[in-house]
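Ticket #4471: complex job returned nothing on first submit. Input attached below:
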Amino acid sequence: MSARIGVVTFPGSLDDRDAVRAVELMGGEGVPLWHGEADLRGVDGVILPGGFSYGDYLRCGAIARFAPLMEEVVGFARRGGPVLGICNGFQILCESGLLPGALIRNRSLRFVCRVVHVRVETTQSPITADVVPGEVLEVPIKHGEGQFVAAEDELDRLETEGRVVFRYCGPDGEIGDAYNPNGSQRGIAGIGNEGGNVVGLMPHPEHAVDPDVGPTGGQALFASLLSQVLAGVP
Amino acid sequence: MRFAVEVLVTLKPGLADPQGRAVESALPALGWTNVSAVRVGKHVRLELETGSERDAREQVAQMNDRLLSNPVIEDARILEVRGIVEADR
Amino acid sequence: MRFAVEVLVTLKPGLADPQGRAVESALPALGWTNVSAVRVGKHVRLELETGSERDAREQVAQMNDRLLSNPVIEDARILEVRGIVEADR
Amino acid sequence: MSAAPVPEPLHRQLGLRDDELDLIRESIERGPNATELAMYAVMWSEHCSYKSSKVHLRTLPTEGDAIIVGPGQDAGAVDLGDGVAAVFKMESHSHPSAIEPYQGAATGVGGIVRDIVSMGARPVALLDPLMFGPLDQERNRWLLEGVVAGIGGYGNCIGVPTVGGEVRFADPHSANPTVNVLCVGFAPADRLITATTHRPGAGSLMVLYGATTGRDGIGGVSVLASASLDEGGGGSRPSVQIGDPFAEKLLIEASLELVGAGLLEGLQDLGGAGLTCAVSESAARAGLGAVVELDEVPLREPEMEAFEILTSESQERMLAIVSPANLERVRAVCAKWGLGIAVVATLEPGGELDVRKAGATVARVPALSLTEKAPEYQRAMRPVASDQDDPTFVTFDGDLGDALVSLLAAPNVASKRWVFEQYDRMVQGQTVAGPGSDAAVVRVPGTMKGVALSVDGNGRYGSLDPYLGGAHAVAEAARNVAVSGATPLAITNCLNFGNPERPEVMWQFAEAVRGMGDACLALGTPVTGGNVSFYNEAEGSSIWPTPVVGVLGTLADHRLRLPSGFPGPGLAVYLLGESFAELGGSEFAETLLGTVSGTPPALDLQVERRLQDLLQEAAAGDLLASAHDCSDGGIAVCLAECAILGGHGFAVTLAGDMPAHVLLFGESASRVVVAVSPEREGSLRGLAATRGVPFARLGETGGPRAVIDGMIDAPVAELTDVWEQAIPRLLGEA
Ligand SMILES: Nc1ncnc2c1ncn2[C@@H]1O[C@H](COP(=O)(O)OP(=O)(O)O)[C@@H](O)[C@H]1O
Ligand SMILES: [Mg+2]
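Support reply: We reran it on our side without changes. The output follows.
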């Protein structure tokens, strides 16, 4: 039996097919879900993929969060179901209040597409449960609005509760402004919710599983997600 | 009744404003060194049909919270609510 | 003297406004079916030091044309120029 | 007594000549009304009718085994085998970009993407050849930043990766930047929508879907594309439009779903000349006429006049030809993607377009008269003498190492990372090699096959000798495809020139087309389509004659793709091809001697063909570890780039009967630097000898330095910094 991972397509989603392909390459079953149908099709986990839902007009993720399917996703998350938001998906999770903080325009004001390093900060997430903390992964980023911001006390809480899942870093795991591609506070690339079952990250692990077209830092994350789901761990 | 409404959405004061900073840093090269505190916000203009100005304000306040701004990072305020007669349009 | 200036930059009337349209078409799903003519513009607030309000207006008008907007597609207008004393800041 | 000025007749105000008005009268057998005049004006504009270029374009070779669709349709198509077709075409959006760089470039992407979609193909890659004036001018920096942001803003948002392009800088492009965009799409070969596969009959409906129609872009074609900037002035300004990439994304998905479900009898994008062009081309192609109901067109603004609705170039619209039986299913697919539809016309026998508004006919003209019967001109030509002072014979006593550094920092040569990092190059998950490679390689989904793509143009060569400019553009783009190990199959092109009414410009154009044609014949790469951008001039001075060529090739197994950089130490470095004393038109002459003069390098097309054949054979046999062609900056820059890209230095010796700077920086054509593992050297030498390609063993890779014996010795890290940071430094960011 393979894990069934739903990938939601909103109008303007772009990396939805890529996420399905990544799930399948790693041995899971990718299940396309449509924003307009309030039906999760019994999936074991949900990915909100990258892209520009509704053009990212007004604010990234601002309109997508009202999609009929999102109510189901929110319920699924509240029940402890694993939900992964990648890039635009991360923005949607923040807009819908499943994750704290917000993503604003990159410090450079420019879209940036490059392969970066991120350091795994915790195993308390479905995509890092099987990864060694401190491990450095190579994954691409591609976004114009990926600067993570939150109030200081919120940031402190994320740190003390161990909910910072990824931080931008150098090739050897060193943290510093030079490795921060968008100005995110405290170099944060990804965070989790209180229950540890909802994760959002700006980098694109789905573009880091097929060695023919990119780095492979995403393999360990998808492997972890699939094994967690199969083990029935939220 | 039809109303024309203007809303201003700005980043919360404490937050860094990348756009504002970009404008600010471009100015000296153009010969302006006397400008500071640049903040860039969003301005939304819309029209709506309601029974009264009060209703209009109430609805727009809700729209501000739910859609037009993200209260985590932004403040939204109504700049103006103006009744319009069809001839104005 | 120090002035606080507010500028509004909007797309020229004939032009399509994709942002405005996106907002407009999102509203009915949230239960608001009475909204139309949504246009999204940019609001810039800045402070500047000049000799007089006249100078301030003149400089901002130039900044509007050269940096804050592209007159080919946008209109920029000064909403307000207000003298500020240091205590206000 | 002062006479009031006689108002210019309407047809002239619309850019139509007196003899063109006569032609119109002949076609419709009466005098045209204003609406009809507007329709002819947009359709017979240079931009839509190719009236000055057609006679020359017709000479280009267009046939080949792999060609499925040649010029004459929205885009050309080639057969990739296994039932897959690649559709590709390039277009310019230079004029709007000159006044509003972000939206001008963004809408340029939108337009070419719709061309690909209208063939029934999914857009899979974009490439963007660009030219600007020098970056020491603020306006040029503003243009570069805006154009790049616009291409990224649109391309990134519709989920089509930008996998390659070109950026060059030259003073003549200051007033008029050159913005070209190439789009490639894939489709099942049996589902392509072409004039021959899809033939609608009378009674079929023309269904407009996508965005609403506004007053934007009215007359954009005739005003923006047929008048130079200074004449157009303020008047042409409102013609720039705002791109809506989100609407485009919906349009792409809805269109492909309609095509996939077999619901369409035809599909046409709305671009230049808007509805007039789409309706007349669709009708003419079907050999029919149509009744067009303007009242059915969804408008963004109230009270638009007939001519406005007919010529509006509002973006993000498509026209589908649908049999009435399928209309409801078409409506449902569009609704799923949030798009409204409108039945705006019905095909009718007879060949006439009957355009109606408020129940009355407002225009009645034969569809063919707007399209195929547009005028054609054999315009006067006069050869231009270029500066023949050949820099090859100027003495140079500067430091050769410093010269290399200056060349690596020259914006034409320097890394374009600043540009391409603003583009999503990986969405869709098939980008084997993205920007920064000699050729981009995109995998054909579900296969091992790769499609290799390169765009090239060299305005410097074009200005000195337009024939060679055209020929070199083809040879260099094909060489870039060949060094990646792929087989060049076909080309598309965008021809960027000044005012064709000037005999000098027309001569340059004809020469460039002749050069392109000769090179295409020799290299076996037919022309599948392209675009001509004239009137790129202001205040009487034009851009450099710049033919830009895009070559598409195939790689049977993308894993055999060759990188450009040296992949490791201990490899033998070979030069394939021969060096001559040729510094004319070189980057060295421009950057270090301050002159663009002399004759561009000679090009022996048979030699070029042999070199490219050898590269494909060597790559297929896995003989090579890397390959990189010598272009701007000659062999010295080529070697330095191999080291920078691969992260490994080299030590080589160059021999040649010429001054060191000519040997290092001369730009002789048909040369490639390859790295070979020692055990394959014998095979490579044998193969090169059999194929008649001259070769020389230059030395080995390895170490942290770039060493050319007795001439240059520099740390690779230093060269890397210079090359990587040059453009950010010029923009004041590093
Ligand atoms: N430079 C060229 N070389 C070959 N074919 C060309 C060239 N320029 C234009 N064409 C062909 O002429 C036709 C009309 O071009 P264009 O008007 O750009 O297409 P569209 O109508 O799709 O906008 C196309 O088939 C195009 O491929
Ligand atoms: Mg077309």
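Chain B has a mean pLDDT of 92. Closing as resolved unless it happens again.
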